[in-house]
């Protein structure tokens, strides 16, 4: 049948002056693309019918729970994912040590409006920010001074001494992707407390990083400039933030703040790594990963239990389908993304020392929601070399709602940039992410099993296509 | 500036032998497309910042609740949406009467495994299906006979007399879109009970129409062939269905079934219609709508409170932006989609009598989730005429994750097909829809305000683009 095809083609080709080899190439590409479409369908069938990741996520977020780097739970998570990887039939599984700073929340924080002429005393729902200092058991009290931005605080630096600084700029909800709204507000949480401390504030509170009006306070990392004293710093719920801002319009507000946070110093922790050695190009590595640590509250189900279990599911899917990778596949559970990135940095350092080359790295750290594609970043010349493939893959991936677009990657794989491969970030639907991000509420119920599975399938498909590049 | 542009172009055009008018057209199109992009951005800003639909949905699903056609709640919903539309500054708002059959669930249904050698008695979580008959207060008991399909039941017709027929085929979860999985299983619910009754069964139970394993039973419509006695028919939760199927593998199972459903006969109900008269082509109508009725359990938040409030929000957005439609805009809350389609049929009949032409109709009835685009259907020649526009709009809509694809529409607008316009259905992400569909759980908490708002913005953008067609 194919031979007859070819003979007829040669006839026409002679008439039309076409090149036989270009025909052969096109035919082979078409066959190739048909095979690829078929394999991607198998990946999705496997993911949707035989998903294991939801069970794994249940264990990680509900049986282990919040697992900030250095905590006992973080080591339980290392052990758990190592044990899971041991069942996946990989060639090697190992723990890679890294040094982390263990920040400990201690007894529950309090933020209370005190002696207010309008409402008397009122407890606000708050979470201390990661890295912030403790107030001591007696707490601190002071008058609140509200700013909408770091610049506004700088412009009023003389008024800040002994006050409690309150950063209140909300998300700009006009952004279509909530990560952009986050990006437009998070400087207040990351740099606000350090600035407040430098200018003599007793404490700093920040409106929680979410576009939703609700009663869940959000924690998250805050950075201290060298030599700056880490004062108590907390996120308050958006509903409480609205209330506080309204009260401040009427008259001065005094707050009582009590936190018991402490920096417990260096601990040894681990990233967990599994590897399937490539059959043809073992020296070119394709990595899938997420970060194993989470904040200490909630269960870190979306952030980033999802990325971890999806990465392991990628291996399970490809193994179940009998796929023998041509390049080396690595599955990495990075340690300490939330407050230090020790895992990602150590991984890249060790990899550099061994002279490894990561051909591509894919991180899932934007929640276990319906995937919409991948963003890419990395070395320009390599990207130019491979974007024609991305365009070719559009026919294969768009039926699954996936599009490959410029701009992406992830914090943990960022340090691999120097190896000049391509860095991908999974892009899920972002609308619900900041309902849960860094809260008590980031639990298994917030993750939908099918949406999670579709993310695994998307990642497995991309791994497969990358591995097929000649 | 533009003039200088044109002069330079004419110079080049002479050199290159181009046509000045084609340039002008291209330039005007580009300007046009830029204006359109700008207006669509305004629509999204308005929807994301000043959404009202979530408040409306709260009232509809939580203050009014389940509102099956003919029920007191269904008339409360008519009054509520009429009052809302009265505030939107439309030219006319009216109720359109239609005759509906009022099916009444009555006292709570029971399905109980009785005297089982393995587990004794066990209550199953069940909901009577819409249109099904009552058992009488004494209930009915019988031995269960399980089938995976209507065909299997037909092939075993001699074994069915006096039994309780159980249709147990699950969703095929390999389908990417859950509506396809629904389509592959729902014949059991729609036609199973009638078939069972015809073959002498005492009652019929059906595995609930969801791909998820949980304890929520799903109701939904069932159809009776002419002259067939409506026996008790119920959906049981998927977890209970799994349990029942497992028990049936061991030994015969007897069930007790009790339902108190009754057909309360014809009632007059209403669809609610609002209109803004077109400034240039008033005789060409663009319709947006959803269905106002829901099942009697839960709050009908996704099905289809969402479609109703999104359609009203479309009007609110366009009004807020000062948009004067060239064609007539209609916003329609259809009555009785769930069990009779009286609203949709009556609307099309009345419209036909008045010789109206619906240039386009857009229905939202697939849940208030993140929109992924629109499916279209309708008259072939008109579609051929307008698909070039759809392709042109891709640049405008794809930044919002929207794609216009073949195949769509909706039940309520289906009867308008004879007017030979184009029928569109909003296509949201479908992964979570059948967690809630037709259950007690279809309540406001299941709808995300931003996802809902994005659907309104998508619909308003399509209305705008359709209205801009010369």
Structural account:
The structure is a homodimer. By secondary structure, the first copy, chain A, is an alpha/beta fold. Chain A has 2 domains: about 30-105 and about 265-470, Zn peptidases (Aminopeptidase), CATH 3.40.630; about 105-260, Glucose Oxidase, domain 1 (3-Layer(bba) Sandwich), CATH 3.50.30. Chain A is built from 13 helices and 16 strands. An 8-stranded mixed sheet of chain A has the order 1-10-12-11-13-16-14-15, with helices on both faces. An 8-stranded mixed sheet of chain A has the order 3-2-9-5-6-7-8-4, with helices on both faces. In chain A, helix 5 links the parallel strand 5 and strand 6 (about 165). In chain A, helix 2 (about 20-50) runs antiparallel to helix 13 (about 450-470). The radius of gyration of chain A is 25 Å and the shape is elongated. Mean pLDDT of chain A is about 95; it is low at about 1-20. At the A-B interface, helix 2 and helix 13 of A face helix 2 and helix 13 of B.
